[in-house]
UniProtKB/TrEMBL annotation:
<comment type="similarity">
    <text>Belongs to the glycosyl hydrolase 2 family.</text>
</comment>
<dbReference type="GO" id="GO:0005975">
    <property type="term" value="P:carbohydrate metabolic process"/>
</dbReference>
<feature type="signal peptide">
    <location>
        <begin position="1"/>
        <end position="21"/>
    </location>
</feature>
<dbReference type="InterPro" id="IPR006104">
    <property type="entry name" value="Glyco_hydro_2_N"/>
</dbReference>
<protein>
    <submittedName>
        <fullName>Glycosyl hydrolases family 2, TIM barrel domain</fullName>
    </submittedName>
</protein>
<feature type="domain" description="Glycoside hydrolase family 2 immunoglobulin-like beta-sandwich">
    <location>
        <begin position="223"/>
        <end position="297"/>
    </location>
</feature>
<feature type="domain" description="Glycoside hydrolase family 2 catalytic">
    <location>
        <begin position="340"/>
        <end position="451"/>
    </location>
</feature>
<dbReference type="Pfam" id="PF02836">
    <property type="entry name" value="Glyco_hydro_2_C"/>
</dbReference>
<dbReference type="InterPro" id="IPR051913">
    <property type="entry name" value="GH2_Domain-Containing"/>
</dbReference>
<dbReference type="InterPro" id="IPR008979">
    <property type="entry name" value="Galactose-bd-like_sf"/>
</dbReference>
<dbReference type="Pfam" id="PF00703">
    <property type="entry name" value="Glyco_hydro_2"/>
</dbReference>
<dbReference type="InterPro" id="IPR013783">
    <property type="entry name" value="Ig-like_fold"/>
</dbReference>
<dbReference type="Pfam" id="PF02837">
    <property type="entry name" value="Glyco_hydro_2_N"/>
</dbReference>
<dbReference type="InterPro" id="IPR017853">
    <property type="entry name" value="GH"/>
</dbReference>
<keyword id="KW-0732">Signal</keyword>
<dbReference type="InterPro" id="IPR006103">
    <property type="entry name" value="Glyco_hydro_2_cat"/>
</dbReference>
<feature type="domain" description="Glycosyl hydrolases family 2 sugar binding">
    <location>
        <begin position="106"/>
        <end position="181"/>
    </location>
</feature>
Amino acid sequence: MKAKNSLLIATALVFSIHSLAQQPTYKIQSVAIQTRWAKEVSPANALKEYPRPQLVRSNWTNLNGLWNYAITSKDAGKPASFKGQILVPYPLESALSGVKKVLLPTQNLWYKRTFVKPVATTGEKVVVNFGAVDYLATVYVNGKEVGSHEGGYTEFSFDITSALRDGENEIVVKVLDPSDQGVGPHGKQVLNPANIYYTPSSGIWQTIWMEVVPGDAISSLTITPDIDKGVVNVTVNSAASSPVSLFVEGKTITGKSNSPIAVPLADAKLWSPGNPYLYQFTATLGSDKVSSYFGMRKISVAKDAAGVDRIMLNNKPYYNLGTLDQGFWPDGLYTAPTDEALAFDIKAIKAMGFNTIRKHIKVEPARWYYHADRLGMLVWQDMVNPNQGLPEGSKAAFEKGSAEILKQLHNYPSITTWVLFNEKWGQYDQERLTKWIKTTDTSRIVNGHSGEYLYVNEQLRSPSPDAYINADITDVHSYPDPMNSIRMDGKARICGEFGGIGVFIPNHQWLTGSAWGYIQEKPAALIAKYSIMNQHLQLFKKEGLSGSIYTQPFDVEGEQNGLMTYDREVIKVPFADLRKIHSTLNPDLASPNWLSMVKDVTAMDADLTEPAQLYSNLFQQYIAGKKDAQFLKQLAMMATQAGDKTGEARIGREYIATMKTPLSDDDVNSVVQFTKSSKDAGFALMVKQADQFKKVLGDRKYTVAMMNMIYKGDMESMIQQKKSWDEIGAIVKTYGAPGEEMLLRAKTIDFYNTQNWEGYVTVAKSYLEKYGANLNENEKSMFQKAIDDHQ
């Protein structure tokens, strides 16, 4: 997806964190909206399910729960004291972590807890497993470094046996996460979230657990079905070659580890979204026994009876009717509150009538793919794109991470398609990397480039004739209306993204001041617009289209273009209506199993009343004298959405006037939301109670908010009136550091845009010297290059 250009004034202003606070007991931090599952989260039940359903052992210890944490400078050693507690495995920035702080690229996040040494006999090993830690994790047990792992999306394990002592032991995890400022893949996470980019998820964000395993243990399984031959090939991987046995369908098959074992299946039950049948089996190597499962399915591209290249499921044409799932949560960010919540997303998408999910530049926990397997959902799995600027080291980090993804996710029958690149996000070596994926995994098809052909309002933005080399698919992105992709012999045609219809639902928004989408519609108009889009898909299908991906199933932060709200509470088009719209495209929707698998999915239907009318009705109550604080807050939010700027300013002032000190965290956030300029009532409050605002927002976010208010309230009109910079400076410098930084930034940008190089060099040098640390590398390089070229 492509974002609209942001205003230069607000670009690249990076948040920092406030000081550590003592947290004697766990409490979810305040958040604009939260899901129904958040109330179920506690230190005693934080994601307690066994986290690896395809390699299950009985002897394990869950290490989720409260850990001590500390934040230090990047170069500092282990802190002398840990002053707070964090609920693992929820990311540092999430409300469910109990912390909700931003980790800067210049800082380390430290975790610490104790555990009792598991009972292990002679020759057995104790292994600690991590689902995922973002980004660079170093693990210490009793002060001894036992290993490190780079990459925020894949699992890793360390043998900690030699570091253990009898009784109580200490484990410490050090984490560095530069987010979008580093060389590694970071997906949609950025330090300055806006539009289609979201809040980072730093640190431990998937389950940590320990296992006691034999000295010669099963390290992993490699499972590849072959329906044409009626077998499933299973490789039991271990450090040494050893005898192994598989118990499948009441039969025992023997072989050697590290070599494929062909397991025959007479009249195999084929896996599909309409009938997601899973075979259960166990694998045994010596005293190590694990349970697992597999599904018999085949994915391919072949010609149909009319000679058209189509995506085939189990050797039959199968239209991939999909949606673009980001995998973000308002309360847990990258981490779903509970396992039930994790499964709900797939059930809800199935209840909408989709049979495919494109998992967008994120790798989910293993249990998400297990739920996709058991519920029946095709998955297009994106690689997590490299840093788009391709700094030195980014290509190596991307290829290492992608290799780990291919290995880690190989066994899931739901995954049918690998997506290498999204649009032009860090694209390089297209031909080589597409071929590498196809060679690494011959059992799936490869979408080498999703959306290299990108249309917005039917205008082509980025043509590239070599985009689909070595791929099985040609793929176009088209916003808002779908299009058919180009025809190439031997390749299926896909519309890899379309839609993005922004519809806001009052009281169910992460950001109430915006409803980002490629187009905006009222709730009542969404069903008609969406129906017409799907009618065009029907025509495209007749002309050769094999699949489509709608953006998107759920709102995400500032994007309000989901079919459901971000809190998963409101469905904007009823489930039954969506299934009716999709019935001509989804081959399995008539299956008797379909509704039975999603019968427990619930959500409120959207109120189709015109939002401005809702606001007008409440506004009349305000005129009649209703002025309680909660009502004023809701009315001010709705005024923003209805476009009543005069009403928003008036009601926002009155709401702020109801606040009493000390301000709550929610009060602070509301003041910032309803304060747009230095002329607004909330600005004086932010100046007067700066320490309280910095405590809640963080120093940097507070400064950024002040800068934008100063620009809006004082500088914008003076610039339009062509006042001199001396006159402007005399006003804004009275606001202290935020005013000085905003003045230098505005002058630098103005001189750059007007090519006033004589004035630019001096001002830009001063800006970079004083505030360059707040800029992203691309902007800093742009300003520095202009200095070098003209001094």
